[in-house]
């Protein structure tokens, strides 16, 4: 682990962010504040509404986002005939504070957007996904305009793109990019004709979520959410593209300085042979969060194996991080000992000067720096494992 690497440096920006989040004047109180922040962050509720006409692929999209096949337990019920009579919530299998709501189908002759939104309890949702499997119609446009009038975000999804591509392949001179561009342009022009200003349409396949526009859709949703809800959306998304894995790493990285300070706080216990005191249990828990978020826990690897047809042994063979074989107090202490070697005097001094409440004990400053280095190293390595597993699941074993 080289402390000269950008990913391992405690930057001025990190220290500024940490200082801003601390209003207390002493270390134990600051640690309490940060613990409250982290606890609340993990419990933030996110409610995503998914609507569209019958048979448009609402339920398949919900299942795909949650990493579930259509025919497993807890999957949203699918079918060409409308199966949803009232809003039904489906919790994310790992993060139960995130709910996907399958709303009743739109498009009947009696459909009125204002009455519909009142019926489904509009105020409950953070944003809306409006799905069409062919062209968007007036019912979609009217709903979007009413959602916009009530100052919430919505996203148009043209679903079943894989079927459209398969159909287009039967034609001479097939070109996938041109086909996708034509579908998107047709959808956008159609929405403009029925009164939607400057519409964006995302092309999605529920069966191949890693293809087409899902990465762009997720990035847009994340950007437009309030700051305190972005983190939980980032945690829930499947690790199906390199871009998503990188964004998820950056999201998790933002908490490292807070966790490091909390670890050096009131619950810290001296580590034998080192001039540091840390909350080892907290660090074990944080590291396990990384594995779960990147889909490297046993349950997630089993699902990847089933979907890809690659064996668990093959997938785990590409995982090289120091914690891939398990996370224990002993393994964390060993990593901490290695990290403390890079807790340079200058870095500790900078931390003590910038955040005076740590200055009550140099050991706390040393602990903060050592834990920061360690968690960044672990996070970087686990993110690389996630990328390697993604590539391995998409390719044939050598």
Approximate shape: globular
CA radius of gyration: 24 Å
Give start-end ranges of low-pLDDT stretches. 1-10
User: What's the total number of strands?
Assistant: 8
| Spatial separation of the terminal alpha carbons | 30 Å
Helix proportion range: 40-55%
Sequence of secondary-structure elements: HHEHEEHEHEHHEHHHHEEHHHHHH
In DSSP terms (H or I, runs of 4 or more residues), the helix count works out at 17
Strand content: 5-15%
What structural category arises from helix and sheet content? Answer: alpha/beta
**Mind describing the biggest β-sheet?**
6 strands, mixed
Could you characterize what this model shows?
With 398 residues, the protein is α/β, with parallel strands linked by helices. The chain has helices spanning 12-20, 27-43, 58-65, 113-119, 138-149, 161-168, 176-193, 214-224, 227-236, 242-253, 256-263, 280-293, 298-308, 312-317, 329-340, 345-354, 362-394; strands at 46-52, 88-91, 98-102, 127-132, 153-158, 201-203, 269-270, 277-278. Strands 2-3-1-4-5-6 form a 6-stranded mixed β-sheet, sandwiched between helices. Helix 5 links the parallel strand 4 (127-132) and strand 5 (153-158). Helix 2 (27-43) crosses helix 11 (256-263), helix 12 runs parallel beside helix 17 (362-394) and helix 15 crosses helix 17 (362-394).
